[in-house]
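Two folds, back to back.
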Amino acid sequence: MAERQPKKMTVEEFFEWQQRQDKNYELVDSVPVLLPKAMTGATARHDTITVNAILTLGNQLRGTPCRPRTSDQSIVTSRGTRRPDVSVECGKPEDHSMSASDPRVVIEVHSPSVSQYDRFHKLEEYKRHPAIKVILLVDSEAARVTVWRRQEDEWDYTEVVGLEAVIDLPEIEADIPLSELYADLTFRAAGRVLTAPPRSPLTPASACGACSA
């Protein structure tokens, strides 16, 4: 059984405490907060998109200094810790670390149940992280991704829409076709039912010189 959570703690105390829990938490303003999906579980759509992202990136990054991470790995932010649905870490990680040391890309899959407040605050925390170069906010109900990209000291964003679109990620020398990201999902648009094709077979990994620390 999980122990009663302390009221306030440091990041180091939080990670030590988290190892004794049976559910995943984030540390927000020194207080552990249970992840919503830890209480109810992720929807099938959310889970499909998350797995598709990991498979697509994992295939391209195999054999390079970069690798996709699940929400079991935290990212230390200005307010504590966050657990993005998917992140890409580069460089040499510590085997027993509970947080990504050099996260370059963050992916959050959003659904109607996620509040605008939660989206805004997580986005701003990711923007302030010095290592993060790209943030992808993935819509689970439509083939649409908001891409936030660091340009020196500023952040710009673009909307990538449609199953034919591709998100280029030169920061890690990879890309994400939306047809791969939304593979096996069905959408409704203008009275029509659109189905993303099955995920394509694995292809040889590409080089990732930009990932070297």
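---
second:
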Amino acid sequence: MEITVLPKDLKIGASENLQLYNYRRTEDLQKTKINLSTNTISFLRTGTKEVIGDDKTVQIGNEHFVIMKSGNCLMTEKVSDSFSVYQSILLFFSDEEVLQFLEKYDQFLPKLKTQKSFYIFKYDHFVQNFVASLEQILALPKKIQTNILKHKFEEIMLYLVHQNDPDFLNSLVQNLDDKINRLTNIAENNKYNKLNLEELAFLSNMSVSTFKREFFKHYQTTPMKWFTDQRLHHIAFLLQTKRNRPIELYEVAGYENFSNFVQAFKKKFGMTPKQYQMEN
């Protein structure tokens, strides 16, 4: 799977601390490796987006927009059934822009509680009008866009910190240097996602061999065995609730057929899923 680097691969032009792009596609984008070289706001207009990062998976439609911290993620985009197009207005902004904003408006300096890769916000009347103004700016010459975007970035940041907890600003400029902490975040938050080793290593910003080595150091087992155990324990819990039949759960456990799932479950718990459900 190739890596798409944004905004570089969009060929917007000269690198700037603030860049604006009208992103459109008429075909679905399947799960793709994305390297965000800068922070990004994706103002989704039509279609749906799923983003898998180091701390969680987010899914949004055109009633929400998302702020994404620079780094690696996996992204899926679906075109709108009504309009047969996927569209989002992308506003790329550097850490430097965030730092300048925090220096100018130091009253918003928060005590960082948790660090996240993504922040989801709901559209309201103000934000809808703001995005409409960005679409108008896109029609202007690049030089004028650059000058105006400085003020537009400040405008949306001021609005968001007034309407929400300002912690998201500090989170954008914090770097997670502890590779083990990052690795465990990715493992714990994606244990039920069907990600392969290459995708997990990409999210961890490691090679596959390094990821496997560091994973074993921390968990004392291989990634494949750990993820399999986590999913089987999850299936066992679902069976106890009596809400699902075993045949409905093999894909959730990451198996392509029911037979292999039954064999793995029996090896783990000493009985078939059906027997386990009857006895618990």
